[in-house]
Amino acid sequence: MSLIKVCHKWLSLLVGLQLLIWIGTGLFFNVMDHEKAKGTKYLIKQDKVDVSLSQLIEPQKVLNSFPLAVSLEQVNLLAKPYYLLTHTKGLYKHFKNEYTLVDAKTGKQVVIKQALANAIALSSYSGPGEITSTVKLLPPHEDRLKEKNPLWRVNFDDAINTSVYIDAGSGRLIGHANDDKRIIDLVFMLHFMDYAQERSFNNIQIIIFAIFTLFFALTGFIWVIESAFNGKYKLSAIFTNLATTRPVEIFNKNGKQVETLDMSSHENLLDSLLNHGIALPSTCAGGGTCGRCKIQTTEDVIATSADIAHFTADEIASGFRLACQHSSDELQALTLLDVTQASNHQLKLMSSEFISPYIKELKFIALNEQAIEFKAGAYMRFFIPAAKGVSVPVNLPPELMHHWQDVLEQEYDHLACSRNYSLANGDGKSNELVFTIKIQTSPNSKVTPGIGSSYICNLAEGQTIEAVGPFEEFFAVEGSNSPMVLIGAGSGMAPLKALIEEQLIKLNSKRPIHFYFGARTQVDLIYATQFEALAARYENFTYNPVLSRTDEHWPGSTGYVQDKIADDFKTLSKHGAISEFEFYLCGPTAMMNSSIEFLRAKGVDNTQIAFDDFS
Fold it and tell me: What pairing do the DSSP bridges indicate for beta strands 71-77 and 80-88?
């Protein structure tokens, strides 16, 4: 089923793009000037010339001179009579033909050369331009794709770049082309998918697209059927006023019933539980991709594709499901496997300050509440309302503008969503909630910038936002005196900074603490002054900044932070057996995966490694 969904999504992109092209080109066909589309703005209609047959050589004499000719006709060029003999005759004039042109008065063979081609072109042209070039071309011809014979192209220097085409064998005027017609030809190609320029609607591209569209419809139909069997379609979800509430018995993982909650059928269980102050772990905002909001039920609840992707067959049979994939009308009881009691808070922004070109430090306080208690490393889930976003921060400081000069400025509308951000303070000395948030930029105009980070970082001081938490999933081992190694990069600073402050300032811990932090340049090295001050004050704390892009003035380590860990591993072992160390990681996925792989290769057990994956 996952393959069908992947195929459907990619096919939807292909079909959707072509539909947009059809709509755009179809609209163009409706509003265009059809006279300009002909490319005949400066074309003069050729008048018929009356010729006295008594002045012409007998046609039979000409045929006797060219015995291989299959036909002869009398034509006029520049008001002069000629005989046109055809040696190879195609079904149509634009098919392959072989001609001989003979002066009908003298009987001499005539070859269409540049001077004659220019004269024929001028006789058909009424525009203001002068001839700039005359070229004899072999097929295929850019402006005359159907023509299979050699042509003379006579170019004029008028405003629309007129070109006159003349058959090099017969002298026949093929026609005019100009920029207006060339644009129409391009739109025609896009509209009829004539990318091979066959000038035909019945082309291979159309056939392939029809097959893709058929598969798109079939995969969509299969997906709809699968979703229907999984109970995804409910009237209550479409019509909120039809939603009902029903009691659901809640059990803890020990099998003890803790309470009965009235839960709405138009919400998934993850959101319904959150509305009752019960927060299940989730980093995908209910998208079914992280697989963390696990519950268990004894009832026959149909497993969705997301359930099947995250649980084994035995777990599915035992009733394991994802809360975000189901609603209260599917069951009467559920067991919570991993739950946190969470509270909703209204947070007021007290300050918002850039601490690097792309990272802001934001300080909030909870309104009408006492100080919120939390373990260092905790995070909160912010509810981002539907709004209009901007790709470049509002009120960007002048000294940072050059960092953002290559970022495309755009406005966009976004729907409501939620985002998780780690708390950056852990000293326990303030009622403030501090966050360091990186503003996620967009690589191009087709990709929306970070919705959550842009919204929060553009809040004005005094504005409020709703959040739930704190959630304590990443924290230091309580009561431990083992050496700590903290590894981070970028906006992964927040929880690691909180852990360091908790250990040194709040707990006055004497355990060895080694902090490795990677950044690109010195301006990206956030909180460097604070950590240098902590290292000077506490003998058990060492600060190791690592820069990947440096200049000759940087005295510290260079490269990637994970490489610095590898270099210092023997030195770290002097502080005790590596089996006693605790490793805490937070940062980009590539950095964490590389660091974890190295630590495991050095014999570090998984139980010694804690990481906060915010990717």
Answer: antiparallel
pTM value? 0.54
* Residue indicated by tokens 């940072």: 400
Q: Is the preceding omega at residue 470 within 30 degrees of 0, hence cis?
A: yes
Residue 233: predicted pLDDT: 57
Q: How far is CA 154 from CA 32, 37, 94, 97, 140, in A?
A: 27, 20, 18, 21, 16
Residue-wise pLDDT tens digits, 516-543: 999 988 889 999 999 999 999 999 999 9
- pLDDT tens digit sequence for 171-213: 999 999 999 999 998 998 888 888 777 667 778 888 888 898 9
Compute the mean pLDDT over every residue in the chain, rounded to the nearest whole number: 87
Residue 228: strand, helix, or coil: helix
Three-state secondary structure readout of 380-423: EEEEECCEEEECCCCCCCHHHHHHCCCCCCCEEEECCEEEEEEE
Q: What is the 3-state secondary structure (H, E, C) of 591-610?
A: HHHHHHHHHHHCCCCHHHEE
Q: Do the beta carbons of residue 169 and residue 101 sit within 8 Å?
A: yes
Q: β-strand 151-156 against 163-167: which pairing, if any?
A: antiparallel
Q: Please, which residues have CB within 8 angstroms of residue 3's CB and are 6 or more apart in sequence? A: none
Query: Edge to edge, what strands does the sheet with 433-438 contain?
Result: 417-422, 379-384, 464-471, 343-354, 359-366, 433-438
